[in-house]
Here is the input.
Amino acid sequence: QSALTQPPSASGSLGQSVTISCTGTSSDVGGYNYVSWYQQHPGKAPKLMIYEVSKRPSGVPDRFSGSKSGNTASLTVSGLQADDEADYYCSSYAGSNNLVFGGGTKLTVL
Amino acid sequence: QVQLVESGGGVVQPGRSLRLSCAASGFIFRSYGMHWVRQAPGKGLEWVAVIWYDGNNKYYADSVKGRLTISRDNSKNMLYIQMNSLRAEDTAVYYCARDLLGNGGAFDIWGQGTVVTVSS
Here is the structure.
């Protein structure tokens, strides 16, 4: 159950777009369409932003989008807003009823 | 409203036990798989365990297998995790979370978390 690989940090200017990657293997990200993304502000519980690679829960703005290619999933945040500054985590089903998270990416809005 | 509220955290000595609880409200608890996820201080999220909607299947991360036991009481809308032989590395905020997909790992509802500190 190795953690998925995310860049430790990412940044973008207000109004711009940023993409965060999440790299796994064919046993997790590449093998299943069960990739999720979470946003976590300091001291708060995580919030589901994307599930099943590209689906948005009700209430999540369409500025947030997800995709996957091979063993790498991506979260794109368009039209960056100040409140988007947070930690972002990916997760994937890893077979045999196991789940794995990425190490997290701290997004800074400049 | 849809809500999960954890309780039971605290400071415990290494080797001792602790049971965490998670009270669910505002949704049909018995219809959802439920998970525990933890976050060590300053670290990322770590999946801990899952229990299926009916309680008949339970699965654990390798790091806790044999020491932590997940359970639920659908008549009381309660989720639990029994933590035995606690280690310093179990120190974390423990969250319970509802799985939108049953067992697919889409956690759409989270509790506020309860803090467990393992220290002598």
In short: The radius of gyration of chain B is 13 Å.
